């Protein structure tokens, strides 16, 4: 084998270039990690080269790959799902009241998801004569995904399949919640309000004002119990919002009120998809 044929000769330039590239990157201050990149973007924004909103979207796009469906899904207790056995006029009433455009439809058990109903499909048959007499004929296939699925993967699948909603299942196959393409996009661009959303500033986790409290609906029941000396169980529901929603029996609207034991809960902030915050009044024990 000649010297020119030696494998070491062809490898050396590649290794040399790789080493030189790394050295140049280090000397030029180019980011080597995601944290370095975020810091560089913040410096660029501070210098006025990009807007603050643009920076937030860039950071959101980077963060999406670290988030899972379980981080952003609408919990089961706050889902609006429709029973397949209900007559079409009753389903139409529920659709109008909720303000959603897509609905999981279930059988006798809420874990039995039969498909997804689009409001426009229901409206089309309700106004037409001689249409279907049951909702099952209108259902579109439901996409089932695990809580552990990465958001960037889900977003790609949403785009490829043109689905806008997926049902999230837990490790036992039960329904854990749902996620929409809007939930994913909000991680990048921020909160997307529509005509059904309530315009109100976000509530802190637990804050006191004028002797009353504002409590984030996603506050874990265990945290609520510790803060207020309560003894609510968390076997069925993880959050105080889930517990209140279940006790009311439907996705509550702003102003709805419920008393459980020595606590009165009044809905402070909610939209067409979930409960966000509660006013809480604590009564003295009798």
What does this structure look like?
Helices cover 38% and strands 20% of the residues. It is of the alpha+beta class. The protein folds into three domains: 7-61, no CATH class; 70-189, CBS-domain (Roll); 206-282, Uridine Diphospho-n-acetylenolpyruvylglucosamine Reductase, domain 3 (2-Layer Sandwich). Strands 8-9-12-11-10 form a five-stranded antiparallel β-sheet, covered by helices on one side. Strands 1-7-6-5 form a four-stranded mixed β-sheet. It has a three-stranded mixed β-sheet with strand order 2-3-4. Helix 2 (34-46) packs antiparallel against helix 3 (52-64) and helix 3 (52-64) packs across helix 8 (181-189). It is globular, with a radius of gyration of 26 Å.
Number of strands: 12
The portion of residues assigned to helices is 25-40%
Under CATH, the homologous superfamily of the largest domain reads: CBS-domain
Distance between the termini: 98 Å
* Spatial sequence of strands, sheet with the most strands: 8-9-12-11-10
Overall mean pLDDT: 78
Label the overall shape. Answer: globular
Tell me the number of helical segments per DSSP (H or I, 4 or more residues long).
10
What's the CATH architecture of the largest domain? Roll
CATH topology of the largest domain: CBS-domain
Give the low-confidence spans.
1-17, 195-204
Strand-residue proportion: 15-25%
- Briefly, what CATH class of the largest domain? Alpha Beta
Helix/sheet category: alpha+beta
Rounded to an integer in angstroms, the radius of gyration calculated over CA atoms is: 26 Å
Largest sheet: 5 strands, antiparallel
Order of helical and strand elements: HHHHEEHEEHEHEEHEEHHEEE
């Amino acid at each position: 084998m000649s010297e020119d044929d030696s494998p070491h000769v062809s490898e050396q330039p590649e290794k040399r270039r790789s080493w030189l590239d790394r050295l140049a990157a280090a000397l030029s201050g180019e980011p080597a990690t995601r944290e370095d990149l975020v810091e560089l973007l913040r410096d660029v924004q501070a210098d006025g080269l990009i807007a603050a909103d643009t920076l937030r979207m860039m950071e959101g796009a980077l963060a999406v790959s670290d988030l899972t469906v379980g981080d952003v899904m609408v919990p089961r207790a706050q889902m609006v799902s429709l029973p397949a056995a209900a007559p079409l006029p009753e389903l139409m009433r529920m659709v109008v009241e909720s303000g959603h455009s897509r609905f999981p439809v279930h059988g006798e058990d809420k874990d039995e998801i039969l498909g997804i109903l689009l409001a426009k499909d229901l409206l089309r048959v309700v106004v037409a004569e001689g249409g279907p007499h049951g909702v099952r004929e209108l259902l579109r296939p439901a996409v089932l995904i695990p809580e552990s699925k990465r958001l960037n993967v889900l977003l790609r699948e949403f785009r490829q399949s043109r689905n806008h909603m997926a049902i999230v299942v837990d490790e036992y196959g039960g329904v854990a919640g749902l996620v929409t393409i809007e939930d994913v996009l909000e991680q990048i661009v921020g909160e997307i309000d529509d005509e059904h959303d309530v315009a109100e500033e976000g509530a802190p986790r637990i804050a006191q004002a004028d002797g009353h409290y504002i409590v984030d609906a996603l506050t874990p029941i265990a945290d609520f119990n510790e803060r207020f000396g309560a003894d609510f169980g968390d076997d069925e529901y993880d959050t105080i919002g889930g517990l209140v929603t279940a006790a009311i029996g439907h996705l509550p609207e702003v102003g709805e009120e419920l008393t459980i034991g020595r606590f009165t809960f009044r809905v402070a902030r909610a939209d067409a998809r979930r409960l966000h915050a509660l006013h809480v009044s604590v009564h003295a024990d009798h």
